[in-house]
Amino acid sequence: GLDAALSAVSARSHIPVQLDVRVDRPDGQRCSRQAEAAVYFAIAESLTNAAKHSRASECRVTVRIHDDAGSMKLWARVEDNGIGGARVTPGGGLDGISNRIIAAGGTVALASPNGGPTSLEVSVPCAS
């Protein structure tokens, strides 16, 4: 599942990753494969970007199920302690993340002030 896949990608990261995944839904169901794949991609690409550009010494990844007025959403946040300044550029990694999440019906929020830290939050409907 998603937890095991994220554990594997975190273990391969060039930057130490603190991983906190809690994706048990109250109804016992899993989110759709499309939702899980979109969130996995966003996290994997974010960790790659952090290793390439951030000069970070650590990353935190948090993944949760949120109940948004009866609509279950898969939410994730990736934060590094690097230099910040990340921007979405056409064809770049952050653009790819945004496109993938939006295609799954989700939302993306990036905060990366100069001096850091950088955080990326994504949210995708479980039924996407």
General description of the model:
The chain has 128 residues and is of the alpha+beta class. 34% of the residues lie in helices and 30% in strands. It has a five-stranded mixed beta sheet, with helices on one face. Helix 1 (2-11) packs parallel to helix 2 and helix 2 runs antiparallel to helix 3 (93-103). It is globular, with a radius of gyration of 14 Å.
In short:
This protein has 128 residues and is α+β, with helices and mostly antiparallel strands.
**How many H/I helical runs?**
3
Topology pattern, helix = H, strand = E: HEHEEHEE
Structural class: alpha+beta
How many strands, which pairing sense, and closed or not: the largest β-sheet? 5 strands, mixed
Major sheet: arrangement of strands: 1-2-3-5-4
| DSSP strand content | 25-35%
The first-to-last residue Cα distance is: 17 Å
Q: Which overall shape is indicated by the principal axes computed on the Cα atoms?
A: globular
The averaged pLDDT comes out at 93
Assembly state of the chains shown: single chain
What are the segments in which pLDDT stays under 50 over at least 5 consecutive residues? none
Q: How many runs of DSSP E, i.e. beta strands?
A: 5
Helix-residue proportion: 25-40%
Alpha-carbon Rg, integer: 14 Å
